[in-house]
Request: fold
Amino acid sequence: MLFKVSEKKIVYSAEPENPKEYTADFDREYSRFAAIYDKAVKLLPCWKTWITSLIPHIEGPRVLESSFGTGFLLMQYADKFETYGIDYNSTMLEVARKNLSRKGIRATLQQADVEALPFEDNYFDTIINTMAFSGYPNGQKAMAEFHRVLKVGGKVLIVDFNYPANRNIFGYLITKFMESAGDTIRDMDLIFHGFPFEFSKEEVGGMGSVHLYIGTKLGNSLDGD
Ligand SMILES: C[S@@+](CC[C@H](N)C(=O)[O-])C[C@H]1O[C@@H](n2cnc3c(N)ncnc32)[C@H](O)[C@@H]1O
Reply:
């Protein structure tokens, strides 16, 4: 009990008050640190383990990675599918393109906002999203777009920080640290249940602070069609 935090301490973040400013602040940082970010992801074994935990769940043929950063994860699977990617930050996009081209890996990458995905409805078999959802300015809008562009029966795979189910102090503090760095820690059960998804989750590392969420699209509307 000594190493657990009380249930009362599990308080989710409020949605950012100024979504444009929130995105612009992160975007400035990603432009400044894209090269360092790229090296850090390639070197940090735990980061690699966490984000690659979703690979066995990818189903094709058509896959979208939303917010691929500098493309480390893309390089692990993109060749096996018809792969598309979007990211908001132009510097991250540039580094990702170079990374893929150096390895001869093909994927269609473009700059876009998660809240306005440049794809038609019911288009993808799988959507991938790692360490980015808690940096989006509006969780409902991001999930609505994921839901819209997924085919019925398609899956959204999200890896991100959140509170550990057993409320252990270490996982709790890691999540709090991410929140203090600007992340919006959301009740993901609530967000998934706002859409017609069958939903499961598991903890994949970081003392229970890193979660893999899997949502399977059941229909286009909550009424079940
Ligand atoms: C922490 S990085 C994660 C990168 C990579 N997925 C990983 O796991 O290392 C977050 C990424 O989200 C992107 N991003 C932030 N806001 C976005 C938005 N509104 N639409 C699309 N991408 C966004 C950033 O540009 C950045 O590349």
Summary: The first strand starts at residue 62 and ends at 66.
